[in-house]
Records
---
Amino acid sequence: MNTYYAQALVAPSERNVADTLTATALKADVRNYTYAGVVKLIAARLYQGQTTNFRTPGGGFAPVFTQAP
């Protein structure tokens, strides 16, 4: 029998991104992709609206920095 886990809805945080002299507030979304209970990939994106928009200055995928335990 497989077990399925679902996360409750969590509102995205916001980050200020400055591409020139003005700062733009973009939503931030961090995701952990797992398989067999082990995190395989961590990804982040910065966006406006409902979906990732690669045309928004400063938007798109973002680096995720981790720290060893």
---
Amino acid sequence: MLKIMISQSADRTRVALAGRLVGPWVEELRRCWDEADADRRERWRVDLRETTHVDSEGKALLSEMFRQGATFQAQGCLMLAIVEGLAAAPGARS
């Protein structure tokens, strides 16, 4: 299960994820991302501090979000490694 909490301010959209980013929850996060205005995507701050697991589809979505301008907040070895991997992936923004 994944809880997706979205809060918006004038300059940022904060998306906090709690639980497992797997299976159908990846598609739910994708739906939220797809519904966001393209110009606001660069202002997305994705909080992964309460995320406990990310499957390969979840990693692919996070990578896509990163390439389109989202930033990430993480803690713990697993989530920090995932976020570091986003920046090192082929096609990642500089």
